[in-house]
Automatic annotation (TrEMBL):
The chain crosses the membrane at residues 33-54, 66-88, 100-120, 132-150, 177-201, 222-241. This is Mechanosensitive ion channel protein MscS. It comes from Caballeronia glathei. Residues 265-329 form the Mechanosensitive ion channel MscS domain. Its main location: membrane.
Length: 433
């Protein structure tokens, strides 16, 4: 890295920043170093105090979180510059001006390095763990850059050569300490960019009115795999890892893992097939794998089916492609229901049918097209079995509750019209003499 040089007002070169810092530290007395340390501690205490006050006043919501990030970036450097200015005005007899200049340049350099990290945080909105790693990385990079700037070029080259000489070996992976550090820093930045990009594309796909929910979910999963694959290759390349050797190793490992987890792999592949074919969609009422209910959630590996009892069953996706699936909502949501009513054989069947049809017509959930109908389904043992058939368009709102309401209304109407329900006769064997 070339040295940074300070220039005089007439643009004439006079010395590098490394020479300035070296001379300032060499000529500093213990008292000046103690005073400089007190200035640094005071600026840190002031920054902590201001950040706590700002944390209490800034709401912890998604809307105000960028403002807090800006404060975390600018407040420490501004406090350090403010305390250095105060020390220059009040403590010049006890501290050399060159020391204050070096500290001020270091503070400005720290602020300039924090700005790219702030831009990444504001644009990609990382999760708390990645946000913490990004801030730690920015401070670490700041310290490394300060060390590089304040060192003569020949000493810096010795340090870099020593870092390259330290080699780490793990199977097919052979890296040195410098490339490993570069790979770790790249990994943090790439994870933040990849995670933010995936979230942004996911929101766009979810809000799209041209794509069905299943197709949007399938595209999001494919984008996840593609983005993270590219990110992994970029990090490995930056770390100095031979990607071809890793690919061969990963291929051999994948064969072994695939044989042991072939059912899991089948579920993932079946999930993509189901999502693209849209044979099962969120909101459908299906019966699969011995479970009947409404589909409430779908992933690449499993589908969540909520039964009428509120129980959530996680059905592997390969069950939906290998076994028979009964989908009551494949073409539309209409479903035919039926109620069986037994009346006495002496009862007026026409009046009973008319009462049942009146009740079905009064139900808001019963469709009038196709119209409900009542049939004489069976005559046996002194009773008549009437079968009422009707259609509904919202089976997800429950079926047993509607059947119960209709049966209760029919019983009330039969009592008013004096229509007697049939009684079951217990047949007994004749006693033997």
């Amino acid at each position: 890295m070339p040295d940074l040089y300070l220039t005089a007002p007439d643009n004439e070169h006079f010395e590098s920043l490394a020479d300035l810092s070296a001379r300032a530290l060499a000529n500093a007395s213990p008292g000046e170093l103690v005073t400089l340390l007190l200035v640094v501690v005071a600026s840190g205490a002031l920054a902590v105090f201001l950040l706590r006050r700002l944390r209490a006043k800034i709401p912890d919501t998604r809307r105000w979180r960028p403002l807090w990030s800006i404060c975390v970036c600018f407040v420490p450097a501004c406090c350090c510059l403010l305390m250095l200015l105060a020390a220059y005005l009040t403590a010049r007899p006890w501290i050399d001006t060159e020391l204050l200049v070096v500290m001020a340049l270091a503070s400005v350099l720290q602020l300039l390095i924090q700005i790219p990290a702030l831009v990444l945080e504001l644009v990609f909105r990382p999760v708390p763990v990645l946000r913490l790693l990004l801030r730690c990385l920015s401070w670490l990079v700041c310290l490394c850059v300060m060390f590089a700037v304040l060192q003569p070029e020949r000493d810096l080259e010795h340090v870099l050569d020593a870092a390259r000489a330290i080699r780490l070996t793990a199977g097919p992976v052979r890296v040195n300490l410098l490339s490993l550090a570069a790979g770790a820093a790249t990994a943090i930045v790439v994870m933040i960019v990849a995670h933010g990009t995936i979230k942004w594309l996911g929101r766009r796909l979810e809000r799209s009115t041209r794509l069905s929910p299943n197709l949007a979910l399938a595209m999001r999963r494919i984008i996840d795999i593609a983005v993270w694959t590219v990110a992994t290759v970029a990090v490995l390349a930056q770390a100095g890892v031979d990607v071809k050797a890793m690919a061969a190793f990963a291929g051999a490992l994948g064969i072994g893992v695939g044989l042991g987890l072939q059912r899991l792999a089948a579920s993932y592949i079946s999930g993509l097939i189901v999502l693209f074919e849209q044979s099962v969609r969120i909101g459908d009422t299906i019966a699969a794998g011995g479970v009947k209910g409404r589909v409430t959630h779908m992933t690449v590996r499993y589908t969540t089916i909520t039964t009428g009892d509120g129980i959530e069953a996680l059905v592997p996706n390969d069950t939906l492609t290998v076994n028979t699936v009964i989908n009551q909502s494949w073409t539309d949501n209409t479903l035919r229901l039926s109620n069986s009513i037994h009346i006495d054989i002496e009862s007026d069947t026409a009046a009973a049918k008319e009462a049942i049809l009146t009740i079905l017509s009064a139900q808001a959930r019963v469709l009038q097209m196709p119209p409900p109908a009542v049939y004489i389904a069976d005559i046996a043992d002194g009773r008549i079995r009437l079968e009422a058939q009707y259609w509904i368009a919202d089976p997800s709102n429950g079926q047993l509750n509607l059947t119960s309401d209709i049966n209760e209304a029919i019983l009330g109407a039969f009592r008013v019209r004096d229509i007697r329900a049939a009684r079951w006769l217990a047949l007994r064997e004749p006693s033997r003499a």
